[in-house]
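Protocol step 6 of 9: fold each sequence in the batch and record its structure tokens directly after the sequence line. For illustration, a two-sequence batch is reproduced in full.

Sequence one:
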Amino acid sequence: MAHAQHSPETVRTWLITCFAGHVGLPAQEIDPGRPFSDYGLNSVGSVGLAADIEDHWGVVVTAEEMWEHPSIDALGLLIARKPADRPADALGSAN
């Protein structure tokens, strides 16, 4: 497995937009340092966010990792450093 070749800033920007869609807020209202729970993200929402991350970045984020990385800033660093679980060419148009 190759490591993700994305900067934390690139991942962070994408996460802000994706997360905003999950919580129904404009992206500019999302503070990437605030915990997901401050925005009302529950376990069902976390599963949806994790699925979007896998679809877009090819990286599996477990429920435990979501708990241990409870903000966009923390989760973005994890995603940028994690090995991709699928090669980039297998992601298709999700990039």
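Sequence two, same batch, same settings:
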Amino acid sequence: MESETKQSRKSRMEQVLTESFQPKELEVLDVTLEHAGHPGMTKDSKETHFRIKMVSETFKGKSIVEQHREVYGILAGEFKKGLHALEMDLSYPNQSSK
């Protein structure tokens, strides 16, 4: 368990998203610094805001709201530990761009 506490939020998120969605593509970016100066953000705020781009067969046939709910559900534990916000670009393989 000690290694789990030393693992970064980004690494934990990548691991749980990979295990849950078996993505063809996954990019998890820490964009916390882009939110510096926002209410509630301090100089000690770390790994609170992320941008996720993920392509997974799991999303096929699901609405954007359903896709987002699945990701939020999988990452619920991280929100309890200080994750504040996610920006998500989710799709399935060969999905036409909008």
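Proceed to step 7 once all outputs are recorded. Observation for sequence two: Residues 9-21 form the longest helix (13 residues).
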